[in-house]
Amino acid sequence: MKIIGITGPTGAGKTTALNALTSLGACVIDADAVYHRLLEESAPLREALIQRFGDIRGGSGKIDRKKLGNVVFADPAALADLNAITHRFVGEAIDRLLRGAAESGAPAAAIDAIALVESGLGERCDAVVGVIAPAELRVRRIMAREGISEEYARKRVSAQKGEDFFRENCGYVLENTEDDTPEAFGSRALVLFTEILDR
Known about the structure:
The chain is built from ten helices and five strands, in the order βαβααααβαβαααβα. The chain is α/β, with parallel strands linked by helices and 199 residues long. The longest helix has 28 residues, at 76-103. The two termini are 12 Å apart.
């Protein structure tokens, strides 16, 4: 089973690229979804986060992701600590999901992770593809998608790695431009993934 890592900043078009991979029979593992599930289900992860960041729980007693976000997006050291805590838990969960995909006979698995390279998840992959797009386009997309303020969207975008990081650390780059339609971008992604899987 080939493992393809998909990375890139939020709002760049990773979902469209992943849909192309799904159409080729790949099992997609969303690291963000794994993290959110662990926030709900993993007491050891919650305890580690509260120990480092204080009381970041909401009214329901669960971790309030916006409270946590407001702490880490403004402080690079806090963001590094968050990543160090979460990468270990997420990595272990993804390894279990990869084993399951291989056992089910999937021809490929895709790991979708913003921090694919930094977390070490990229080392599990046969190919790493970076999906990038201009920052202004990404801000507009995540505001529309998540119903968040422009200020919060810009905080999130500026807290993430720039284009150069993905160009330097990924074996392949898919660039989503202002002029692209989702269909045109999806077609380019399909061509690239077909080539990777045929190697």
